[in-house]
Write a structure and sequence with these properties.
The chain has 299 residues and is of the alpha/beta class. It has 3 domains: 84 residues, no CATH class; 100 residues, ATP-grasp fold, B domain (D-amino Acid Aminotransferase, Chain A, domain 1); 78 residues. It has 11 helices and 12 strands. A 4-stranded parallel β-sheet has the order 2-1-3-4. Strands 5-8-6-7 form a 4-stranded antiparallel β-sheet, with helices on both faces. Strands 10-9-11-12 form a 4-stranded antiparallel β-sheet. Helix 4 links the parallel strand 3 and strand 4. Helix 4 packs antiparallel against helix 5. The longest helix has 15 residues. Bound molecules: adenosine-5'-triphosphate and magnesium ion (MG).
Length: 299
């Protein structure tokens, strides 16, 4: 029975289960184990089951009536996240990032309009059958000398010269070659569609892009870390004006990756849902998890 003295339910952490453990084990995937060390209440979901569409199986180990929770785990498509949200709600667990907020932060077309003044100009298409025609229009619209290509979530930065960077966007053959190679490498994993982004010079001063990942909770930058690809590189970004964009996005828990352009201006390389953003090794995740588990559902 409810009473004014009843304590608000503790906010739990839902981690991916260890795929090597037994089907009943509550052991988290080692990649997320340190997240769980700082939370009072932890439950696990089966990411593999969720990806193959077996959502009931995925949430089987979540105790009934768990209450409010954040997910911390591998990336999910927006539609799988919506499946997860619904299955958890049926068990009395409320994800504090809604499925629509997840999609907005996770997919470039969701966050781009809000961050347009802070991030390289971008155009996208979801019509993969007509990419070649779109590319001509997109290149003209962007009007940039050079560009990079990615899908709505990921690039192939590992194949920078052949499937990511387009040094001469006006070169019809070159841009088609890079975009086609990108699509080929992504294959069935291509998420959402193709994005063309104006190239900006982030590496001129140092020879490498030095990024900071800022973790925002309820509009506050609760922690600033390295980018997980370069955990030893620490930079202090200028966040002026960014809080307004984060607030306008309307998602409770997001990350922004920032890099300093050669003219000194800090730019957003990408936005992400904080639940699926990787945390760099060698950095204490305690402050972030403590802030997350102290958060409560909207009144
Ligand atoms: N507009 C741009 N101009 C110049 N370089 C860029 C631009 N966009 C991205 N890059 C470079 O390409 C890399 C990959 O881009 P981005 O971070 O958008 O893709 P990703 O595959 O999602 O990477 P992550 O591993 O961070 O999730 C960035 O780290 C940055 O070095
Ligand atoms: Mg990135």
């Amino acid at each position: 029975m409810g009473s004014e003295f009843e304590e608000a339910p503790v906010t739990a952490l839902l981690l991916c289960s260890d795929p090597l453990a037994s089907a009943r084990s509550r052991r988290p995937d080692p990649h997320f184990a340190r997240d769980g060390e700082h939370a009072a209440t932890v439950a696990v979901i089966d990411h593999d089951a969720l990806v193959r569409g077996d959502v009931e199986d995925a949430v089987r180990r979540v105790p009934a009536g768990l209450g409010p929770a954040w997910y911390r785990g591998w990336m999910l498509t927006a539609s799988r996240y919506a499946d997860l949200e619904a299955a958890l709600a049926d068990r009395g667990c409320l994800l504090l990032t809604t499925a629509s907020a997840y999609a907005r932060a996770h997919e470039l077309p969701g966050w781009y309009p809000v961050f347009a003044g802070h991030t390289p100009a971008s155009v996208h298409t979801a019509d993969l059958a007509a990419v070649e025609d779109w590319l001509a229009r997109a290149a003209a619209e962007l009007g940039a000398e050079a560009a990079i290509v990615k899908d709505f979530v990921k690039s192939r930065k590992d194949a920078w010269d052949t499937a990511c960077h387009i040094p001469d966007l006006g070169d019809t053959e070159q841009r088609l070659r890079v975009v086609n190679r990108f699509m080929e490498l992504q294959g069935a994993d291509l998420y959402g569609g193709v994005v063309l982004r104006a190239f900006e010079d982030f590496a001129a001063a140092t020879g490498a892009t030095r990024q900071a990942r800022v973790w925002w909770l309820d509009g506050e930058p609760v922690q600033t870390t390295a980018h997980p690809d370069t955990p030893q590189v620490r930079v202090s970004p200028d966040l002026t004006g960014l809080d307004r964009a984060v607030a306008a996005l309307g998602c409770r828990f997001v990350t922004t990756d920032l890099a300093r352009r050669s003219d000194g201006v800090w730019r957003v390389i990408e936005v992400g849902d904080g639940q699926v953003s990787d945390f760099p090794s060698g950095t204490d995740i305690g402050p972030l998890i403590k802030a997350l588990t102290a958060a409560r559902p909207p009144a």
